[in-house]
Write a structure and sequence with these properties.
The chain has about 350 residues and is of the alpha/beta class. It has three domains: about 90 residues, MurE/MurF, N-terminal domain (Udp-n-acetylmuramoylalanyl-d-glutamate--2,6- Diaminopimelate Ligase, Chain: A, domain 1, 3-Layer(aba) Sandwich); about 210 residues, UDP N-Acetylglucosamine Acyltransferase, domain 1, CATH 2.160.10; about 30 residues. The strands form six sheets. It has a twelve-stranded mixed beta sheet. Strands 9-12-15-18-21-26-29-32-35-38 form a ten-stranded parallel beta sheet, with no helix packed on it. The chain is flat and about 100 Å long. The model has no long low-confidence stretch (mean pLDDT about 95).
Length: about 350
């Protein structure tokens, strides 16, 4: 697919500065630009590449004033990153969508499969399961017995929806993700640990994306719930009976223990750990490796550390912690001076 600068500008509400007939057929980072590619620039540290890149078109802020001649055609927009995102979505939507059921796919006699689905070789839809219109299952993707997957979903290779679980419309499950494995429930006995049956389900609402090798455990009873629009990165673990509310983002290696509720529009960055049976308020942002040991009740906080608390207070405390060795040395010197003064007074 090839697009001209004027077409792109009209699509994203931009203005062309240069050759309106310049054309592109691919995307590239500005520092790796090639002829026929579209790049974007928004951060001053990348400005030198604007003058040297081989990309044919660059998205730039409307206020950008080049300090040197620019060979590429510029398209001026309010927010280059947002404009690029819209272009990438448009580009992806133009790709042909696979359809059809492979003879090597397995669909149980009691399963229901909608229109325009794609079932790749070795994909599986088990007894009583349902797959909605336009959904795609890639090789070794499995929809378990009695499970339901909505419309226009993508289940990439080796993703699994366990029995009786629910997946809404327009969800994406990346390779190796598991929806509805047993929650981690065991009762200690004198002879070891006895497994507690996990008879609930996992439920994903619409527009949820699950990263590669991420897991959402089924509930002990009831449901583990991932609400509308939640985005979950690779290698994330969601425990049984957790509820993650709408539009929250969970980055790589986040772990949430059982029966916890995470509010709307939260961002938990890499390796954040959340204890069980607590509440995290809406619009909470947790910095990398934060350990959330107790409920966060005030909405809109930014927290970090372990145990996690206010990020500004944590920064001040960290500065003091770094001074610890010098402060200890000063304290030892002061103790020596005080001891010497006491000896002098005693004499």
């Amino acid at each position: 697919m090839e697009f001209k600068a004027q077409q792109i500008a009209e699509l994203i509400g931009g203005t062309v500065d240069g050759d309106a007939q310049a054309s592109v057929h691919t995307f590239a980072k500005i520092e790796e630009g090639v002829e026929g590619a579209l790049s974007f620039f928004y951060d001053a540290k990348f400005e030198p590449y604007v003058y040297t890149t081989r990309s044919s078109i660059i998205l730039v802020p409307r206020t950008f004033q080049p300090a040197q001649p620019v060979a590429a055609t510029l398209i001026r927009v309010d927010d280059p990153r947002e404009a690029l995102g819209r272009l990438l979505m448009f580009y992806e939507s133009m790709k042909p969508k696979p359809t059809g059921i492979s003879p090597q796919a397995y669909v149980a006699p009691t399963a229901k499969v909608g229109k325009d689905v794609y079932l790749a070789p070795f994909s599986v839809v088990e007894d009583g399961a349902e797959v909605g219109d336009g959904t795609q299952l890639y090789p070794h993707a499995i929809v378990g017995a009695g499970a339901k997957v909505g419309k226009d979903c993508i289940l990439y290779a080796n993703s699994t929806v366990y029995h009786d679980c629910r997946v809404g419309d327009r969800c994406i499950l990346h390779s190796g993700s598991v929806i509805g494995a047993d929650g981690f429930g065991f009762a200690p006995t004198a002879e070891g640990y006895e497994k507690i049956p996990q008879i609930g389900i996992a439920l994903l609402e619409d527009d949820v994306e699950i990263g590669a090798n991420a897991c959402v455990d089924r509930a002990t009873m009831g449901a583990t719930i991932i609400r509308k629009g939640v985005k979950i990165d690779n290698l994330v673990q969601i425990g049984h009976n957790v509820e993650v509310k709408s539009h929250t983002v969970l980055c790589a290696q986040v772990g949430i223990a059982g029966s916890t509720t995470v509010g709307e529009w939260c961002t938990l960055t890499g390796q954040v750990g959340v204890a069980g049976h607590i509440q995290v308020a809406d619009h909470t942002t947790a910095g990398a490796q934060a350990g959330i040991a107790g409920s966060v009740r005030k909405p809109g906080q930014t927290i970090i550390g372990s145990p996690a608390y206010d990020a500004k207070a944590w920064s001040r405390a960290t500065a003091v912690f770094k001074m610890g060795p010098s402060l200890m040395a000063e304290l030892r010197d002061l103790k020596k001076e005080v001891a010497a003064m006491r000896m002098t007074n005693d004499e």
